[in-house]
Amino acid sequence: MTDNLQLQQLVAACHWIGAKGWAPATGGNMSVRQDADWCWLSESGKDKGSLTTADFLQVSIADNHAPSGRKPSAETGLHTLIYRLYPDANAVLHVHTVNATVLSRVEKSPALLLNGFEMQKSLSGQTTHLDTVPVAIFDNDQDIDALATRIADYAQTHPLRYGFLLRGHGLTCWGRDVAEARHHLEGLEFLFECEMQRRLLEKP
Ligand SMILES: CSC[C@@H](O)[C@@H](O)C(=O)COP(=O)(O)O
Ligand SMILES: [Zn+2]
After folding, report:
1. Which of the four pLDDT bands, split at 50, 70 and 90, describes residue 3?
2. 75, 138, 167: which to mutate for ligand 1, most atoms within 8 A of CB?
3. In DSSP terms, which residues pair with 40 in a beta bridge?
4. Is residue 26 within 6 Å of ligand 1 at its C-beta?
5. Measured in Å, how far apart are the chain's first and last C-alpha atoms?
6. Which of 76, 95, 164, 201 falls 20 to 30 Å from 47 in CA-CA distance?
7. Is any atom of ligand 1 closer than 6 Å to the C-beta of 73?
8. Strands 38-42 and 56-60
C-alpha cells in the first residue's frame, strides 16, 4: 500500500513538525503503513525534525518486530495498535505540543470535547461546528504494552477517530494518508490552542 512516495511525504511531514516546534528534543514519532502486515517507523531517540528516509525502520504490525535489529520508537506499540484497529489508517503522527501536553492535564475527564469551532471541519467527515468531537485522553504510562492494552479496551466501546491524547505527554493522530494525517494534526492542534485560550479567558 505505501510506496516510497508516502515515506518521502512522511519525511517532509517530520521536517514540518520540527519547524513548528512540535517535536522538541527528540520527542515525537511518526510512521506510515507499508501494507497489511508492515509499517515504517522512526528510529528511537532521533531528532524528528531532521529525519531522512534511512531513519525509518520496517516493523511488523502484528508483533512490533523490527527485522533490521535497530530500535524503532519507544512508542511503536501505539502505532501498530492503530494500524491493527483501523485498516483505513495509513499514517500515524505523534507529537509533543504544549497545547496537547497541558490541555490533557487540565481536562480531568476521559475525553476532551470540542464544540463550537468552525475548524472542527478540518477533521474528515465533520460538517458543522454544532457537533461535538470527542478526543479520548489516556493517563500516560511508561509501560507501552499496558498503555496499548488500555487504549484497545477503550476503543472496543468508543471507536477512536482522528487521534487521542496521552495525559501530560502529547497527541497521537492518524489519517488515510500522510496528507490527511497532517490535516488532522494541524486541525487538532489549532482546536487545542483555541480551547486553551477559551478556558483561560472565560475563567470566572
Ligand atoms: C524526549 S523523551 C520522549 C520519549 O519518551 C517519547 O515520548 C517520544 O515521543 C519519543 O520517543 P522515540 O523512542 O524517540 O520515538
Ligand atoms: Zn512521546
Report:
1. low
2. 75
3. 32, 58
4. yes
5. 51
6. 164
7. yes
8. antiparallel
Q: Is 72 in the pocket of ligand 1 (CB under 6 A)?
A: no
Structural domains of the chain ordered from first start? 5-202 (3.40.225.10)
How large a percentage of the chain has pLDDT more than 90?
Answer: 97
**Separation between Cα atoms, residue 195 and residue 178, nearest integer Å:** 25
**Can you give the pTM of this predicted structure?**
0.97
pLDDT tens per residue, range 20-57: 999 999 999 999 999 999 999 999 999 999 999 999 99
Angle at the Cα of 142 from the Cα atoms of 196 and 67, rounded to 5 degrees: 115
Judge whether 87 and 18 are in contact, CB under 8 Å: no
Distance from the CA of 42 to the center of ligand 2, in angstroms? Answer: 12
**Of the candidates 184, 186, 166, the residue with the CA atom closest to the CA atom of residue 90:** 184
Please give the helix or strand (H or E) that residue 99 lies within, else none.
Answer: helix 98-106
Dump pLDDT digits (tens) for 57-111. 999 999 999 999 999 999 999 999 999 999 999 999 999 999 999 999 999 999 9
